[in-house]
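Troubleshooting: if your tokenizer reports a length mismatch, compare against these two reference records.
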Amino acid sequence: MRIDGDGLYLVAGVALLVGAILPRLLRRYAISAPIAFVGAGLLLGLAVDRSHLSPIAEPGLTKHLAELTILIALMGVGLAIDRPIGWRRWKVTWRLLLIAMPACIAAVAGAGWLLGLAPATALLLGAVLAPTDPVLASDVQVQGPTTGDGAEPEEDDEVRFALTSEAGLNDGLAFPFVYAAVFAATKGAVGDWGLEWFAWNLVGKTVIGIAVGVAAGWLLGRMAFAAPSRTFRLADSREPVFALAVTLGVYGLAQVLHGYGFIAVFVAALTLRAAERGHDFHQELHGFVEELEHILTWGILLLLGVAITGGILKPLTVAGAAIGVGLVLVIRPLTAWLSLRGTPLGPSERWVTAAFGVRGVGSVFYLAYAAEDFGPELPSLWATVAFTVVFSVLVHGMAATPLMRMLESRRERARE
């Protein structure tokens, strides 16, 4: 049986109902909601027309849906972080971003090249698989803003903070490396584009994104919490849609100014969070964004399952599978573990932080973004990325609950 366009409304309704039930149903088991949704997508693929639900067939739709999902997630994680930004306070984060992430890109690109990929394709694969996911890693991230009179920033769970802040920034920081892969494929030797890439794509666009995020977040924070007119003081009127307006507006402004919009949105969320840090309006904003994120995430995972049923993994090679497994089980844990030497993390915390480099929607977005410049290699690239994302969802989804409980029990014993 095939479901027509009207029948898809029924499918969407059932999917949302299942999404409301699954988190509670699976709370006691080593099966995360993302695993269940991918499985539901596999079954759904047997009933719907899969020809128009493939990222290869619809790269534009795939890109924009993944883009919107990431934006909503970045606003959510930015609002959830209590800790003020700073070099020492965020020491673990900077290590993961400035050491582990480039090392991961280099290792995956090197492995891809050794396994037969063209240099530009290998670099693209490394860049696409670099970002850890702010969407699928909610089980190991901070749960929301701490607000109220006398509220103190959440400092005790360094693992959750590190994984949350890393995921908030490395989605945007992967962009320069994607550009490098595109330039390598379209402009030839590094000497022809290397200086331009460093000055503009690495430094210039990053600085613009940060500047837009800080300025817009500060202005909007002043308006929401301290505007002279109550009409503009949205914290008093309790308008949670303000979070969506900030997300889309800041992203659009950064893009118009040719900066990195992902970075701008996350920085704007941090800056907004810093305005009246104890105000409970932050919880309402975060709750609203979190609901939107859940809906979009369920859709992405269902479509991923449908694409797998439709054969997106058919071009998967042994080399592609080896890269995916190696990244999740070896490359990310090892590079992150080495980068975290000398940080406040204990041995167990260091290993858990290193291991949970969840791959997901960011990888889908970046491959869709670069698709038109890598036409012949796209089927195998999509197969490798889809396999890696599903493998990450399975491994990290099953490990998240027991490992986080282990860390919590060790902390409790240390306090006694």
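Reference record two:
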Amino acid sequence: MAQSYFAEGISGEATFSMYVREYPPDRGYLVAAGVDDALDCLEALSFDADSIDYLRSTGIFTTDFLYSLRDFRFTGSVRAIPEGSLFFTDEPVLEITGPIIAAQLAETIVMNQVQYQTLLATKSARCVQAAQGRPIADFAARRTHGTEASLKMARASYMAGFGATSNVLAARRYGIPPTGTMAHSYVTSFDAEIDAFRAYSRMFPDRSILLLDTYDTVNGAHAAVKVAREMEADGQRLTGVRLDSGDFDALSRQVRRILDDAGLDYVRLVASGGLDEYRIESLVTAGAPIDMFGVGTRVGVSADAPSCDMVYKMVSYDVRPVMKLSEGKESLPGAKQVFRRFDRQGMMSGDVISLEAETGPPGEPLLAPAMRDGRRTTPPSSIGDARQRVADGLSWLPEEHRRLRQPNHFPVSISEDLERLESQIRGRLTAALSL
């Protein structure tokens, strides 16, 4: 496409809008994540000599076009909603305006960064909601789809409200508290389970969490009691025990009883293994005495919704509004703004998608300038600021839209000016098709 634009002399400015057409199953909101990474990618978008040599070797591209890529960089502008903001279907997460070749080449990289991280942040936020204040840690690194994905998961989940990660590189890179416990292999490397517990507690007297289910969870709990009492004799305290398999509800009650009967009410119960928001909600609702959750695979790959219908559509070219008419995939023309309204209690009450040039209906505008001439105009959001936006957004969103199952869709409408423009463009295109 870029080579064809170049050959045809098509170089006007285009605006592309990126948004989600339909919610993934059971979602009533989405958490914007990866926006800052997308902007970083745009700043770095260029072609080095090795890349141009490869393109030449394919035999697909002309010499003149390849020559033009030597000085290529992204020179457009971007408006985006801030990292960690809640958004809803049809609302632009970001809009890119620039020379059409540059704006078109941006599509894959920005969608790649934002779509995946948005899925993870949304899934993680739902887990935080289900846990009802109980801490959650990210244990997903082993089964995410690649090492880079594991870093994105750690960041997105912390932004959404998790308290720690087992991914030490992510902890270092993003300033997330690191956490971790022993594995079953650690226990089986000792002749006796209790020897493993003793060795671990000697090494980490202030943060030992003992894994109980390598052989038998109840027997493991009794062994943990012995180690905890030995630690008390040395002036120390066992931090916790972990359940990783079986009936978490029934086992947590048994283990809690064993610990309490031994006067170890301070020892915390951690559950991990196959958890997601649905299982967490079920355990919390049932009153299972679990103090903390470690979540991994099902959240790290967003197992029930591994993709969302995020799209990147041209909405204007050379000042001319454009749109798609494809059945079920229609797009709205023109660069846009989103205004968010709140009721008197401070709760979100509805969003209005308007044209960018409109003075706007009452409400808070969500899209803000983020890049001009290919350079960022604002620094990246700190992970703390993004984390606070998620927490604030969820506290302002009515419960009916936060439900984990069959939530009501948040009201999103379009302004009269946008509706009028859409009707005009649709009419013009329909008329042209009939000629």
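Descriptive notes for reference record two:
- The chain has a mean pLDDT of 96.
- The CA atoms of residues 231 and 400 lie 47 Å apart.
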